[in-house]
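Table 4 source record.
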Amino acid sequence: MPLELHPVNYASDWDELIQCEHEAYTTPFNGVYVLFRPHRGNDQAGRDGFRELRDRQLAWTKHDDHSKWFKVIDTDIGNKIVGGAEWKIFEENPYTQEVEHPEEATWWPKGEEREFATKLMDDWLCPRYQTMNRPHVLLSILYVHPQHRRRGVGSMLIRWGFEQADKMGVDTIVEAMQEGKPTYAANGFRYKNTILMDPTKDDAGPRWMELEKEMGTPIPLFLMVRPPKGGAEK
């Protein structure tokens, strides 16, 4: 079989891995990707935006001891990366102390744009203090190149995390986009509830409303949980 699963080599794989992420998250449109990459397009600003996101993701990964990245390659086309995933392994409860703003969106300019992006981050991350306040394995990111979907790439990336969760006897959790729900359900995740990233406010200015359109808000995320093999969901 030409598809193989491997850990990501941050020195040699990262550029290609994040290019694959870009292609996956722009086909189809993904509002969460826009949240993390303010500058897009094929002009100089867009190219700079890609490099900034690439470097920021690598810095986040290197400073997170819970983070484990994997890739799927196709050996029939020169070991091209056709999918990637970031897993986070939490052997202890990572949400013991609630904070008002878990992640300020500092990659956006100060002012209304950063306020908007931080509001979306709050909507996304604050519910974790109630839904993930226990040891667990989190599927933080998963994507498949649009030309290589429906080949089992996503399932290969998912199985690695399931194996770790089963060894630990803990739940596996994902916050799915609409497009990913069928794949996760087919692999054993069960829908729990919906998280709504909704920046709506009564006194929104022109730029705020532009950002709502750019990101397609409100953005629903679907909390899905897979209990450990042989165990009950916690």
